[in-house]
Amino acid sequence: MTMLRTEDVRDPTVRRPGAGHLLAPLLAGVLAALGTLATIHVFVRTISGQWLDTAAMLGTDVHHARVEQLLSRTLDATTLTSLVLVCVVAAAVGVIRRRPDLALAAAVLVLAANGTTQILKDRLQRPPFDGLDYPNSLPSGHTTAAASVAFALVLVLPEAVRGTAALAGAGYTAVIAIGTVWARWHRPSDAIAALLIVLGWGAFVVLVDRLLRWRRRTRPGRPSRLTTLPLLVTAAVTTPVTVLGLLLGKTSEAMVTTPEPSRLTFLTGAAGIAAVVSIAFLVWLWLAADNRPAAGPDAARE
């Protein structure tokens, strides 16, 4: 035991966490919260934001019966039962890995994110600037469920499979989020707000976990380049597409007086969702990758 402790002390990669260890999740959480508030303000409280958002939702129809059937099945599969099942799986993985802290953090993340979404959806008032008498649909419950499930699994899974799980989770979340817009269940802002809520709660549980483990020596972890590269490329492509689409949509003559649905507005919304999904999962990979206990006496007690 003494030899292990001595090796840990001499190993330059094993050290006690510094201020940045706490600053990273704190900053991510604050930015996610501000992003959520900004999304609500722009796409719920302003006329131009509502028009662009509604035009994106109405910009396409599901004309293919097989695609519509597959989409409905995929969306319907994201239910409360699936959330509970993932919480159970996360708890089991945490116990097997001797990391009950991560299992508890994953459960809090799923329950808190979905609870926040339901509270906001019920209480947030949406002025009918777009001329549609639809109830408020922000944030998207389906997107919240999909993203929180993926985040929870990424958090508790071992490092060897964490990257693969993140890419699969990002793809699944993007399909669910864009699918709800395609099916006209939600506007793009509903999905974006949901993703930011999940990221915010994810950053919070990581911050609490790091505070509880503050005195323990850790070996900093980094996500694999093979994992981060696809997310970076996706974000780099979809972000400028989103900005350009928003500028073109806002300057359209038809959009000055009423929402003008078009394939362009739908593609802009889909690109915006893909960009936020990529960025959210990229940030989450970095936050989750840092939860690596050092080898030695502290790890043995886990």
Describe the model:
Helix content is 74%, strand content 0%. The radius of gyration is 21 Å and the shape is globular. The N terminus and C terminus are likely disordered.
How far do the termini sit from each other?
15 Å
Count of extended strands:
0
Which word captures the global form?
globular
Task: Give the DSSP E fraction (strand runs of 2 or more residues).
Answer: under 5%
Overview features:
74% helix; 302 residues; disordered C terminus; 12 helices; mainly alpha; single chain
Please outline the helices and strands:
Layout (H helix, E strand, L loop, with lengths): L1 H9 L8 H27 L1 H11 L7 H13 L2 H17 L3 H24 L17 H16 L2 H24 L5 H25 L12 H26 L12 H27 L7 H4 L2
Helix pairs in contact: 2-3, 2-9, 3-11, 5-6, 5-7, 6-7, 6-9, 7-8, 7-9, 8-10, 8-11, 9-11, 10-11
